[in-house]
TrEMBL record:
InterPro entries in the cross-refs: Endoribo_LPSP/chorism_mut-like, RutC-like_sf
Protein name: Endoribonuclease L-PSP
SUPFAM superfamilies: YjgF-like
Pfam families: YjgF_endoribonc
Organism name: Corynebacterium otitidis ATCC 51513
Signal peptide: none
Highest taxon listed in the record's lineage: Bacteria
Residues of the Endoribonuclease L-PSP/chorismate mutase-like domain: 7-151
Length: 154
């Protein structure tokens, strides 16, 4: 039975944002067969970052977790734009990049913001493989960047 992910978002009181405009020369998402791959998505709301700086310095872990949730929603919006949200069969992989201050090692906890939201929305279909990577800088000084690979129906 097909799942209504839009109804699930409504149940959770979550509004899917419009697709974030690319900050360089790329497209937000690309469908390849029964998968959609997204470009890295920043925690942008109405074109502005929800937080900026290095996690563990200018940005707290809690702010970074919230930013990862926002970036995940932006990635879902990108998926929706090429395949439709309700075509999602499952989340295959989440990759999270964390703009990390020197000595900050809690990248997995930050990317849990995206992973936990995947579970809240998609239940078992939200279980995924994942990478959580610490980096020295991100575009626009964003604290996190999230990209997705999802399986979609025909």
């Amino acid at each position: 039975m097909p799942q209504s992910w839009t109804a699930r978002l409504e149940e959770l009181g979550i509004d899917l944002p419009p697709v974030a405009a690319p900050v360089a020369s790329y497209i937000p998402a690309s469908r390849v067969g029964n998968q959609v791959w997204t470009s890295g998505q920043l925690p942008l709301v109405s074109g502005e970052l929800t937080a900026a700086g290095h996690v563990g310095a200018e940005v707290s872990s809690e702010e970074a977790v919230a930013a990862a949730r926002t970036a995940f929603l932006n990635a879902l919006a990108a998926v929706d734009s090429v395949a439709g949200l309700n075509s999602i069969e499952r989340i295959v992989k989440i990759t999270g990049f964390v703009n990390s201050a020197s000595g900050f090692t809690a990248q997995p906890a930050v990317v849990n913001g995206a992973s936990d939201l995947a579970g809240e929305i998609f239940g078992d279909a939200g279980e995924h493989v994942r990478s959580a990577v610490g980096v020295a800088e991100l575009p626009k000084n964003a604290p996190v960047e999230v990209e997705l690979i999802v399986e979609v129906s025909d």
